[in-house]
Design a protein that fits this description.
- This protein has eleven helices and 20 strands.
- With 443 residues, it is α+β, with helices and mostly antiparallel strands.
- The strands form four sheets. Strands 4, 5, 6, 7, 8, 9 and 10 form a seven-stranded mixed beta sheet that branches. Strands 2-18-17-11-15-14 form a six-stranded mixed beta sheet. Strands 1-3-16-12-13 form a five-stranded antiparallel beta sheet, with helices on one face.
């Protein structure tokens, strides 16, 4: 395994797309904020914000409950997938393996801490994986708390978890899982995967959402190794952790919402932490070489034609490795200008329109699937029909393909559909799990 010693300083840029023109008396301002990070992740190996090597740690949590033996391919697939992820670890990465049942158990290195990846420790970890067997229940909160303790045992810049489960979290209450997620939020990011079809979509997506990671379904255990390798490669590409989107607003401006809208929809509004007078931070997690889009909506005071104002200032903030004040990485401005030009004030910015539709798409898919499960066929048909219409209009081909496995599409343009009489459980769960994935707007 190659030893990536070269490091570069990540560079962040912020671009704001909006129609700043409002009619007389207009108050609502929307903007799409595109954040791009280059030069510090997958392009050149780990790099801390100060330019030195970033210490990274990864804990892989593998479901070893009794249901992983039914069929036996699940447990075998989990061992092989974890071994593939271990092979993907870069030299110098801190790591540990956890077996999860109704309790959490350290599999490797087993000393209450983390191993450092090299040829020997990777081989030892894969040997330990061969001894994994299925038996017991499921209490995911205990797995997450153990991962947090292990990741806290070393001085790390990047802290990441990968969690695999095949069943429902039946051996602890929802409140206990919620408490564990609250305790771990902001301490490490976590990607979550459900294997097979016996797990609860909202549990797995809720874990990923709370810990700013990704969620997905691996219906066939044979696909686990490829998925785990991709996840680990993505984790290895992270160069800066704990980046926040800071929103400063003038007196009298009300924040309506702050959402990530690409590569997936994630409402960050309720995660704000105060950061000084009229400023608040919204967590975005860890970054490598990538670009994400955020939708910022604010309500400004009324003003007369000809007036203009700064509606918000958006900044990217990262922790200072030396322990000082957080450092600004880049910023963009959201403006409001009042005009009596009807064409200017009624024009909808294409980026704002696109992502408004993508957010609605995610909502109506969830509403349609919930209606289908409750037996409300008319409601399900209406919502999923609207989803088909939105997916077609925005060019979201992946979501359109998933929808076509749940409904028969009569006319995509008008959203005319019929519910399929029989739907494979894996197809319905895949649609629900991936409903928040979006396509980037074409600029």
């Amino acid at each position: 395994m190659a030893n990536f010693s070269k490091s570069t300083v990540p560079q962040f840029s912020v671009d704001v797309y909006q129609n700043e023109f409002l009619p007389e008396g207009g108050r609502d301002v929307s903007a799409i904020v595109t954040v791009t990070s280059t030069g510090g992740g997958t392009g050149g190996g780990f790099a801390g914000f100060a330019g030195g090597p970033a210490a990274a740690g990864v804990v892989i949590m593998v479901d070893c409950s009794g249901s992983m033996d039914y069929p036996a391919t699940k447990m075998r697939g989990a061992r092989e997938a974890t071994a593939a992820a271990v092979d993907t670890l870069r030299d110098g990465t801190h790591f540990a393996l956890v077996a999860g049942t109704h309790v959490a158990k350290e599999v490797y290195p087993g000393n209450g801490g983390l191993a450092v990846a090299d040829a020997r420790t990777r081989a030892d970890a894969k040997e330990a994986l061969r001894r994994l067997s299925a038996g017991g229940g499921t209490a995911i909160g205990t797995w997450l708390r153990l991962a947090d303790r292990l990741l806290s045992s070393a001085e790390l810049t990047i802290r990441h978890g990968i969690l695999l489960t095949d069943g429902r979290n039946e051996h602890e209450s929802p409140e206990e899982l919620r408490a564990a997620l609250d305790a771990c939020a902001g301490r490490f990011t976590c990607d979550a995967r459900g294997v097979g079809t016996d797990w609860e979509v909202k549990e797995v997506t809720g874990i990923a959402s709370a810990l700013l990671g990704t969620a997905d379904i691996v219906a066939d255990p044979a696909g686990l190794a490829s998925d785990f390798t991709t996840m680990m490669e993505h984790a290895m590409g992270k160069g800066v952790a704990d980046v926040a989107l800071r929103l400063w607003t003038p007196v009298g401006v009300e924040i309506m919402f702050v959402k990530q809208v690409a590569p997936s929809v994630e409402d960050l509004t309720g995660r704000r932490t105060e950061a000084g007078p009229r400023a608040g931070d919204y967590p975005t997690g860890s970054w490598g070489d990538e670009s994400r889009d955020y939708h910022v909506s604010v309500r400004v005071p009324q003003a007369a034609v000809g007036q203009e104002m700064l509606a918000a200032r958006v900044s990217l903030i990262a922790p200072d490795p030396a322990g000082g004040d957080p450092r600004p990485l880049s910023q963009g401005l959201v403006r409001a200008v009042w005009t009596d030009d009807l064409a200017m004030s009624t024009s909808i910015n294409p980026q704002v329109a696109h992502y408004t539709g993508q957010a609605e798409l995610a909502d109506v898919i969830q509403q349609g699937l919930d209606a289908r499960k409750s037996g409300d066929r008319d409601g399900a048909t209406a919502k999923l029909g609207r989803a088909v219409q939105l997916a077609a209009a925005s060019g979201n081909a992946d979501t359109a393909k998933l929808l076509s496995k749940v409904v028969d599409v009569v006319d995509a343009a008008t959203g005319t559909v019929r519910l399929k009489a029989k739907v494979a459980e894996a197809d319905e769960m895949t649609l629900e799990t991936r409903s928040t994935k979006t396509v980037r707007v074409k600029r």
